[in-house]
Write a structure and sequence with these properties.
Low-confidence stretches: 1-5, 18-28
Mean pLDDT: 89
Helix content: 10-25%
Number of helices: 2
Shape: elongated
CATH topology: Porin
Order of helices and strands: HEHEEEEEEEEE
CATH architecture: Beta Barrel
Radius of gyration: 21 Å
Length: 247
């Protein structure tokens, strides 16, 4: 799973690098054209909404003996596409910086596939479904380039907190009863890249975001040495979200 984390970071960095290189190359050859919404970015505050899709993974940190002595394989994660929807509040700082609050609802589902641990009695014990319904509360600093006619790229970064309505944290049942539990709240940092298109009546902006959890989300089973949680020290969510905003 460490490889997945590095891939997410590399993906975001490459998008930012290529996007801005292409942007700089366009500046000398841009021709003037009819400008839509010429005063839109002068508003001190504006609002909007967003729709999107997401895909989440888990990064696992195992006990010291997991690889060297026990020589087990990684826990695999079957990722499924989820959806997000929410609102936007934007505060203008100046021509190049905005502070944004984008509260939303994120739904996702993942399936864990465990190695063939000797403690498992049935084949079904190797599979656990993790459903997540997040109330997602992010705060971003959005950094804009100079507008090119009706187009403007941007990058953003920030922090967020999630309240997971599907966490089962207070459930007294655990994996012995086929209930996989996670914490109800977590904190993340986020990175993203996007492009703004100024249309006649509104501004349309697709963007790609990376979401990286900062806290262990796993709740250990009651039984000591449980095969579902006993081999794991920490479990972190890693997500990618494609969002389209309308402002």
């Amino acid at each position: 799973m460490q490889r997945n984390l590095k891939s997410y970071h590399l993906f975001c960095c490459l998008l930012i690098s290529f996007g801005f290189q292409g942007l700089l190359a366009q500046y000398p050859t841009v021709r003037e054209r009819l400008i839509n919404l010429p005063n839109f970015d002068k508003k001190p505050v504006h609002y909007g909404y967003f729709l999107g899709t997401n895909q989440y993974d888990f990064k696992f940190e195992y006990i010291d003996s997991y690889y060297k002595e026990l020589m087990y394989k990684d826990i695999a994660v079957n990722q499924k596409k989820g959806f997000n929807v929410g609102l936007i509040g934007d505060l203008r700082i100046n021509d190049f910086f905005n502070l944004r609050f984008e509260p939303g609802l994120y739904y996702n589902q993942r399936e864990l596939v465990y190695p063939e641990f000797p403690e498992f009695e049935r084949e079904s014990d190797r599979f656990r479904e993790v459903k997540s319904t997040y109330i997602h509360l992010p705060l971003y600093l959005k950094i804009n380039t100079k507008r090119i006619n009706n187009f403007r790229p941007f990058i953003l970064g920030g922090i967020s907190t999630d309240f997971n309505l599907s966490s089962n944290q207070k459930n007294t049942d655990d994996n012995a009863s086929n209930v996989f539990r996670t914490v109800s709240q977590q904190f993340n940092y986020e990175l993203g890249l996007g492009f703004e298109f100024y249309l006649y009546y509104f501004k349309f902006s697709p963007s790609l975001r990376g979401i990286f959890s900062l806290e262990n989300e796993l709740i250990n089973d009651s039984a000591e040495g449980s095969p579902w949680t006993g081999y794991i020290n920490n479990m972190f969510s890693r997500g990618v979200s494609l969002i389209v905003t309308f402002e």
